[in-house]
Amino acid sequence: MPHFVLVPMLAAGHAGPMLDMARALASRGALVTFVTTPLNLLRLGRAPGDGELPIRFLPLRFPCTEAGLPEGCESADALPGIDFLRNFHDACAMLRAPLVAHLREAHPPASGLVSDTCHPWTGAVARELGVPRLGLETFCAFSSFCMRQMSIHSVFEGISDHKRPVRVPGFPIHVEMSRARSPENFSGFGKVFADEVMAENARADGLVVNSFAELEPLFVDAYEAALGKKIWAVGPLFLQRNMPLSATSGSDDATAVRCGSWLEQKKPRSAVLVSFGSLARSSQPQLVEIAHGLEASNRPFIWVVKPASLAEFERWLSDDGFERRVGDRGLVVTGWAPQKAILSHPATGAFVTHCGWNSVLECVAAGLPMTTWPHFGDQFMNEKLVVDVLRVGVPVGVKDATQWGVETEGVVATREDVERALEAVMDGGVVGAARQARAAELGRKAWDAVARGGSSDRNMSLLVDFVEQMKATV
Ligand SMILES: *[C@@H]1O[C@H](CO)[C@@H](O)[C@H](O)[C@H]1NC(C)=O
Ligand SMILES: *[C@@H]1O[C@H](CO)[C@@H](O)[C@H](O)[C@H]1NC(C)=O
């Protein structure tokens, strides 16, 4: 059987899908080496049954000091500020020599590399070892392809107004994007890094997307045609082993228990989940607007809060009386919450999401409509897919992009925006019912894709065959 070496991007939202990829490959009998670092190894969530799978974890020392990072900064979400992102990528690239040294000694030898497309340096690793490299996109096909077109055509060159929308060239549908809302804005060195990633994607032996053929067929096909390489759509990766979503993460955790028993008391499809992912931090004035919107909506809610200042938020909570007024109707969680389990609970009716791809896919798999509230990165592109193409989303109407790590005082959506969007996504009359029906249908398609003989299941087998055949021809 083949030996796959998996190199995840060291960031909260990236390691999860790669670990799911490891499980999917290993449960097909492949040996997997999963590259990580000592601190990231501790954070990897383990699932029931992981112990029986042939996955070897390889923690490589992370060269913080050499790259000018504070000690212990082994993941992008642990960086003291956005200015350190370049150092962080430099540190990742320094893993090349130790990784190659390890893999030269590996038994059985590596058959192929699957690495996050954010690790362009892994192209050289594959070439040194003479094995194929497949890039795992953590964006969907729509946004990966959109990003590629913006990058290779340098669409923002010579445009000084960051808010001016520009048409994305060579894209299957009409899409406009401004620099402020594009992934280029995500980091101070956006274009340079994006170009490195594009160059290595063009040299890769193929790409893997955590999406499924039936979700975005037009964009998987168009991206494949433009790239001239195979693109395997193998998602949702978190469903690949057909485990119930409620069982996938730490169900004995105190917050999980609290959310679970709260949901048990609620009517079917009556509650909303509000959560903006692991990276974004919300300003205090923005949190106050969300709180008032939730209160006015009169619907049950679980609100997962990541405040720019936890102390300030907690002071506001105790002074304002918000929790007392909403009583048992609302649950405020600061920190981690079991998102997949909440979304798949029958009491949950909609998701107010930042549109990170993992969150969108989890909502799709749960068969629920969403209220879209993008912040940065691929999120504004994902919003277009969700709202305009899939038609399962209601935009809250975000007025401005936020920049990662820069917590503004600004309010991008008001309490009225929140209330209106919740009303539309949860009720919304005939239009809302049609949206809910489309979301439910997509949910069924997601499960069909990963079931035996489904498109993602077959794509995963084809991917394994491809790597084995490449090995045979070397
Ligand atoms: C990102 O967008 C904001 C808002 O338009 C802008 O102020 C900032 O300069 C942009 N950053 C980059 C790196 O382009
Ligand atoms: C993935 O599955 C789809 C649908 O079955 C198929 O058309 C496509 O060729 C497969 N992709 C690859 C790269 O083999």
UniProtKB/TrEMBL annotation:
Specify the Glycosyltransferase N-terminal domain's residue ranges.
5-237
UniProt GO MF annotations: UDP-glucosyltransferase activity
Q: Which Pfam families does the record associate with it?
A: Glyco_transf_N, UDPGT
Which keywords does this chain's UniProt record carry?
A: Transferase
Identify its protein family: Belongs to the UDP-glycosyltransferase family.
Q: What is the designated name of this protein? A: Glycosyltransferase N-terminal domain-containing protein
Give the organism, scientific name.
Zea mays (Maize)
